[in-house]
Each structure stands twice: as structure tokens, then as C-alpha cells.
Design goal:
This protein is an alpha+beta fold. The chain is built from nine helices and four strands, in the order E-H-E-H-H-H-H-H-H-H-E-E-H. The chain has a four-stranded mixed sheet with strand order 2-1-3-4, sandwiched between helices. Strand 1, helix 1 and strand 2 form a beta-alpha-beta unit. Helix 4 packs antiparallel against helix 5, helix 4 packs parallel to helix 6 and helix 4 packs across helix 7. The longest helix is centred in the first third of the chain and has 22 residues. It is globular.
Length: about 210
């Protein structure tokens, strides 16, 4: 029986950005299990914040900038703090999540995920804006018109909300989250943001 490692994330989650290097190492370490058909990896979108055109209040901006500072101090993660001074942030991550869902249909989900993270955290661009997401789509080889039509379709059909409900049903309520699904049994995998080896050991134990 093939097990499924579910990775629940939001492309605008700053802890997901901090986790990326360790997550990349973990995926490389899992490749032999993937090659032998013992394991598949399934990304799942978490959806931190619903659609909104309302500018982010100053106190929330300060809270989130403070979170970036803590992650940077803890993990050495790079952030461009100009974002908080040069854009008009909104508490809205659903558009970025939909962009990853659209890219999934072209097997480019991780490429879109990373493009959004780089636009947001390194280039101080706002992924709550369709223009930013369309530019990210172009960077990974998707055509702007087709991308924007697909974004509208995902929104009108409520496809993201369905996936978020599935994540909640599985108890994946924080981002990033990892859980191993084997048959009907779900095993949460405790995260280590600095070292992938404990997560690798936990996954192998759950598979044993």
C-alpha cells in the first residue's frame, strides 16, 4: 500500500517560507521511498486569509512584520522588509492559494509556490494582487490570459474552499503541517524547522 505524505501550506505563510530549505532537504531524503512507490507527496492548500480588498490595519502590519523578524532571527531566513513600507498589504491569501491550484494542473505547483514566495518575501511585491500572481505565472511559463481565466474558474467553483475544508477535516489547521496517510490512518509528523532528520525518522517509523 502506498502512503501519502500530505504537506499543508499557504504560499503567503511566513513560517512556510522559513521551512522551505528544510522541506527541500526532507523531500530529497524521501526520494528513494517515492521511487520505490512506497510514498507519494500530496500538497494541500491551507488558506490563511479569505478574499479581502480592505487595507491591512497598522497593528496587524506591525504584528506580521514582527513575525518576519522572529523567523529571520530564529532560522536566518531572508526577508525584504520594504514590503511593509512600499505596498498596501491586505489580509488576503486566497488569491495566492488559487494561483498554486491553477499551476497544479500544469504540474507547476511548487514552481508557482516558490515564485510567489520570492515575489513576496524577497522582491516586496504583493501576492494578494492578481497582477503580481499573473507575473509569477509568466515566470514559470504560464500564459497570462489562460492563467487569469483559470483563476476566475477556481474562484467561481469554490475549488479552493473545498480543499481547505478537506484540510480542516484532516486536522491540518496550521501551516506548514505534515501528516502521513496510510489507508485510513493519519499520523501527524512533528515539524523541525532546522533539521529534516527527525521528520524523516518519524515518517519511516510510521511506514514500518
Amino acid at each position: 500500500m502506498t502512503a501519502t505524505l500530505i504537506y499543508c501550506y499557504d504560499p503567503m505563510c511566513s513560517w512556510c517560507w522559513g521551512f522551505r530549505p528544510t522541506w527541500t532537504k526532507l523531500q530529497k531524503s524521501l526520494q528513494p521511498l517515492i521511487d520505490s512507490k512506497q510514498l507519494t507527496i500530496q500538497p494541500m492548500l491551507g488558506g490563511l486569509a479569505v478574499d479581502s480588498d480592505t487595507p491591512m490595519p497598522d497593528d496587524m502590519k506591525a504584528t506580521l512584520e514582527g513575525a518576519w523578524q522572529r523567523i529571520s532571527a530564529y532560522l536566518g531566513t531572508e526577508f525584504n522588509f520594504d514590503f511593509w513600507r512600499n505596498t498596501q498589504p491586505r489580509r488576503s491569501t486566497y488569491p495566492a492559494c488559487r494561483a498554486c491550484m491553477v499551476a497544479r494542473d500544469s504540474d507547476l505547483e511548487d514552481e508557482m509556490y516558490h515564485a510567489i514566495q520570492k515575489a513576496y518575501y524577497l522582491n516586496a511585491q504583493n501576492p494578494s494582487d492578481l497582477s503580481t500572481l499573473t507575473a509569477c505565472a509568466g515566470h514559470i511559463g504560464l500564459k497570462a490570459e489562460g492563467f487569469e481565466k483559470a483563476m476566475a474558474h477556481v474562484k467561481s467553483e469554490g475549488l479552493l474552499e473545498q480543499e481547505i475544508n478537506q484540510a480542516r477535516h484532516l486536522g491540518l489547521n496550521s501551516f506548514p503541517s505534515l501528516a502521513l496517510l496510510l489507508g485510513d490512518h493519519l499520523t501527524p509528523i512533528p515539524l523541525d524547522y532546522q533539521d529534516h532528520t527527525s521528520m524523516l525518522a518519524a515518517i519511516k517509523k510510521a511506514l514500518a
